[in-house]
């Protein structure tokens, strides 16, 4: 009698990331194109690391929201890769890895709870908010 519905149990593995956030993590997002991990945190930061398979993680980016960072995702590939995030400050922000200049790409009337991008629609950022709206 198995139970478990065919689920595979993998051993837990914890890795230490350099320069971790100082408060709770609200969102993690891996890039589909590069070994990059983005992290949104209640300390207001969005951080990113290069996480090569079997290699040592390297911190590559940190930027801030003026309230907790609630969500993050990736846009683009290679040197054009950018972290996109939403926060409790109602802002949607974007920072490219190769050119770490913070850009506000959208705003809502309430905290931004989710962000998404699609490779088929370059430079389009979708955001959802506690204000019950989706913005492009």
TrEMBL record:
SMART domains: WD40 (SM00320)
UniProt entry tagged with the keyword Repeat: yes
InterPro entries, alphabetized: WD40/YVTN_repeat-like_dom_sf, WD40_repeat_dom_sf, WD40_rpt
Listed Pfam families: WD40 (PF00400)
WD repeat copies, ranges: 18-59
Keyword Lipid metabolism: no
Keywords: Repeat, WD repeat
Superkingdom to which the source organism belongs: Eukaryota
Name of the featured protein: Peroxin-7
Native source species: Phaeocystis antarctica
